[in-house]
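Sync notes, pocket subgroup
Present: LS, DG
LS reminded everyone that the earlier model was apo-only. Rerun requested with magnesium ion included. Inputs:
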Amino acid sequence: MTVKLTEKAKLIIDLLRNAGFEAFAVGGAVRDSLMGRVADDFDITTSAKPEDTKKVFSVFPVIETGIKHGTVTVVLDRTPFEITTYRTEIGYADSRHPDSVSFVNNVTEDLARRDFTMNAIAYSPYDGIVDPFCGYRDIQNKIIRTVGDPYKRFSEDALRILRALRFSSVLGFEIEDNTAKAIFELAENLKFVSSERVYAEMKKLVCGTNAQFVINEYIQVFKTILPINGDYKAIHKLPNDHAMRLYCLFGESYIDALTVLRADNKVKSVCRAISSSKPIPTDETELKFYISALGKEAAKTVISYRKALFNEDSDNKAELMLNSEIPLYLSDLAVNGNDLTKLGIKGKAIGEALEILLKAVIKDEIINEKEVLLKYLSSNLL
Ligand code: ATP
Ligand code: MG
């Protein structure tokens, strides 16, 4: 088993050690590296107190990210590294955040506060792997297991429930039985997790290779915080796009769900477009109007969604048309508002005239050339 550190991560560990402190890489990047993946976002855990860390890295830009919790961010040649003092967490009155943290003096105690065995492995080139909770074995067996009693760990911080589900989806790991039981029993605690964190986790979760399985298996858990009404059993058929996949999960409950999640406008507009979409026409002219009315971005989304989920556009006509040079939008016309102003057309009539031209072009009644379009207007409108 090997962890491949980046040069910069090794340099951070070296500088801390040279100053007399212990230092290890830890967390997701160690896990990913042990899985044989290329990892570059190494977090560092150290015996140095934040003030000491700041001194060691005084020649580099240092950001006091969470200095109260022991975290400083050091920027090495534009790469930020989170360096956190060995710590433990005390009290979780709100089922989400520790009431306080206190610094501890060995790495094993720090690893004990981490969520899952696979995330509680430390590595340095000098000490090798420190793995008191057998995380490497769990990685090999593709198992997600809390460090310690899952009921206790999920009661401390309910975000861990969602993290377990997200990791299961993204890494394709199975959740160990007792950990899974605790997830079902403590699902109600998810209401203590902020909408931002739920949204961030859900966006990653729906795009995981194992999304369909995890959602299906844990549907009751998701339903404690989100209204779910979609065709989620088919979610794996969709491209890896979180907006489309969220729609597939929520279906017609998407407005309520996106409100709960405080989703961004881009996701909202994708969901809206899919929700109000009609079957993709097979007739060429109808298809042109279909794409034209949606606009390029929404058409792309709707077509790829309906192709994947409803097997429409089996001859790829719509997809080809989307990528063609065929004029479909007002901006494709060989004339613009200025040209029409010169003809004496004013105000609202400009937009209407452009629409008339586009319609005629789409119907192949005229070709999209400036002179032809202007002449058409003169004889039809003026
Ligand atoms: P990702 O690939 O999403 O970055 P990660 O495991 O690195 O996964 P981070 O949120 O970057 O996740 O956290 C870094 C490490 O901090 C984790 O590996 C874990 O050891 C610890 N950690 C993060 N969140 C929690 C939590 N809610 N409870 C306990 N430990 C946590
Ligand atoms: Mg990380």
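DG: Residues 27-28, 43, 114-115, 119-120, 157, 159-160 surround adenosine-5'-triphosphate (ligand 1) (CB under 6 Å).
LS: The chain has three domains: 7-139, 150-276, 327-382.
Action: DG to write up.
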